[in-house]
Amino acid sequence: MLSRTELLPVAPDVTPLIRPSRISAQLRVQGRISLSEVLSALSCALDLTEGAPAGHTMRTCLIGMRIAEAIGLDTGQRSALYYALLLKDAGCSSNAGRMAALFGADDQAVKPRMKVVDWHARARLALETARAVAPGHGFVDRARRFLTIARTPDATRELIEIRCDRGASIALQLGFPSETAEAIRSLDEHWCGRGYARGLAAEEIPLLARIANLAQTVEAFHDRGGVAAAHRVVRQRSGRWFDPTLARVVLGWSKDDPWWALLGGDIAGAVVAAEPSDRAIEVNDDGLDGVARAFADIIDAKTPFTFGHSMRVATMARRVAQKCGLDATEQRRIYRAGLLHDIGKLGVSNLILDKNGPLTDEERARMEQHPRFTLDILERVSAFRSFARIAALHHEKLDGSGYPFGYTAEDLDLPERILVVADIYDALSSDRPYRKGMVEPVITGILERDRGTRLDPVALDALHAVRAEREAELRNHVNHPPIGCV
Ligand SMILES: [Fe+2]
Ligand SMILES: [Fe+2]
Q1: Distances in Å between the alpha carbon of 436 and those of 34, 297, 429, 442?
Q2: 101, 134, 195, 437: most buried, per Cβ within 10 A?
Q3: Cα–ligand 1 centroid distance for 344 (angstroms)
Q4: Would you say residue 114 lies in a domain?
């Protein structure tokens, strides 16, 4: 049975960021920010979720684009492939909870482990599964867990389907063409027809998906064992996992040591340069908001308990900022910080995020690192650097009792203080694995207890004013429903 979040489509009210055939020309005129730079920098958050080494997505992108060039794809196909490669793991957070629950293990440890297993070799797959389940538990527990997986033959297909469908939806939400979405949806199909989720075979599999699948596998093995390991896996799986024509292209690079060596260095610039130049997409401020909203959905999909959290915090924080008299630029910074404040949670295992009970000291320490991860990720994205600090300080308190930096009042400006109260308000009103969401009077009591000591009075007053306004809006809506709502 899938969880509620896993089944939910992406938020329907999100305006597509780009429609390359119609809108990107306009964005190109107005915009200043390269979309490739934003998405390649943010791809490190997806690597983190997958438990993949930092830079996995960017290296996969370079490998895939080299294959595309070698087989002579036209500019439109290369542009669609380029963004499919950068977003191939956009659905990765959606199956993390299911994976952790199924294996009884840290999803970020299981995912990379299972990625290098040849699923067609049943004995090997069973052995790796047995090694991965419930680490640290006794033999009986581990055997029980292994048998549960073995008796759920559709488990792998289901996990991959959730991830690929969600990733494809996010690509469409961002306005990319269907070729990009279909490449992501068919990422784990195999040439022989024994891949997932639909069991497509040979040329039934979209060409861009065949390239992406080969590129991501080559990257994983190159990263672990160098050129020899990458070539070995391509030879072994050609005609089974991989399109033999594409496999021959990669095998032809065996003597190109300088190019393989490039993959081991700083490749951020090379990845941006790999976007087809006459299709390069730039985004304006609305486009950046769209990217931040798409990643907010990715963050919130990590666990059912945070569904909609980032969007609610962002919306509340922006209204509180407005109420405090901050200008439109500042409101937008706070809004984006709200959307992305928990992006660091993509680096925390679902065994911790979904735990139904108190965390151990070690688990709590890991959980409390997530604002540091947020800072690391957002600082990589030049367009997001201006609000990285606001986002990363959302668990700090005026008296220094917050985490992870332990900052005090003198380190915290009003934007940071606003995001703190907006985040706490939403956390208190939402269900958690260990308690139900609280009612408004109880929330007020908890917030007021910390007025002036841990929480900023100005931000709190503005928060209460916005809550009152929202209540009035709700009452008004109930008393005077829009036409057609009766
Ligand atoms: Fe947080
Ligand atoms: Fe949060």
Answers
A1: 43, 22, 8, 12
A2: 195
A3: 8
A4: no
Kindly name the residue from 88, 111, 345, 397 that is annotated as catalytic: 345
6 DSSP assignment: H
- In a structure prediction context, what are the per-residue pLDDT tens digits for the chain, which is 486 residues long? 223 222 222 333 333 333 333 333 333 334 468 999 999 999 999 999 888 899 999 999 999 999 999 999 999 999 999 999 999 999 988 877 777 777 787 878 877 777 777 777 777 777 777 777 777 778 777 777 777 777 777 877 888 899 999 999 999 999 999 999 999 999 999 999 999 889 999 999 999 999 999 999 999 999 999 999 999 999 999 999 999 999 999 999 988 999 999 998 889 999 999 999 888 899 999 999 999 999 999 999 998 888 899 999 999 999 999 999 999 999 999 999 999 999 999 999 998 988 888 899 999 999 999 999 999 999 999 999 999 999 999 999 999 999 999 999 999 999 999 999 999 999 999 887 777 888 899 999 999 999 999 999 999 999 999 999 998 888 887 776 555 544
- CATH number of the domain at 345, please: 1.10.3210.10
Distance (angstroms) between ligand 1 centre and the Cα of 395 equals 6
Q: How far is the CA of 300 from the centre of ligand 2 (A)?
A: 9
For the chain, how many structural domains are there in total?
Answer: 2
CA distance 456 to 419: 11
* Nearest ligand to residue 396 Cα: 1
Q: Report the SS3 class of residue 282.
A: strand
Ligand minimally distant from the alpha carbon of residue 309: 2
Asked whether residue 172 falls in the same domain as residue 224, the answer is yes
Beta strands in 248-387 (DSSP E): 282-283
Ligand sitting nearest the alpha carbon of 300: 2
The two tokens of residue 455 are 């929480």
Q: How far is the CA of 363 from the centre of ligand 1 (A)?
A: 15
Q: Are both 350 and 455 inside the same structural domain? A: yes
CA distance 39 to 32: 15
In the annotation, is 111 catalytic? no
Question: Ligand 1 centroid vs 455 CA: distance in angstroms?
Answer: 16
CA of 422 to the centre of ligand 2 (A): 9
Exposed, middle or buried, 475 (CB in 10 Å: 0-12/13-18/19+)? exposed
Which ligand has an atom closest to residue 305 CA?
Answer: 2
CA distance readout (Å), 380 to 83, 215, 328, 346, 387: 19, 24, 24, 16, 12
For ligand 1, the distance from its centroid to the CA atom of residue 394, given in whole angstroms, is 6
pTM of the model: 0.87
Taking the CA of residue 224 as centre, how many other CA atoms within 13 Å lie in the half-sphere pointing to its CB? 16
The ligand placed nearest to the CA atom of residue 369 is 1
Q: Which of 282, 298, 317 is the last residue of a domain?
A: 282
Structural domain boundaries enclosing 252: 4-94+157-282
Residue 288 lies in a domain: no
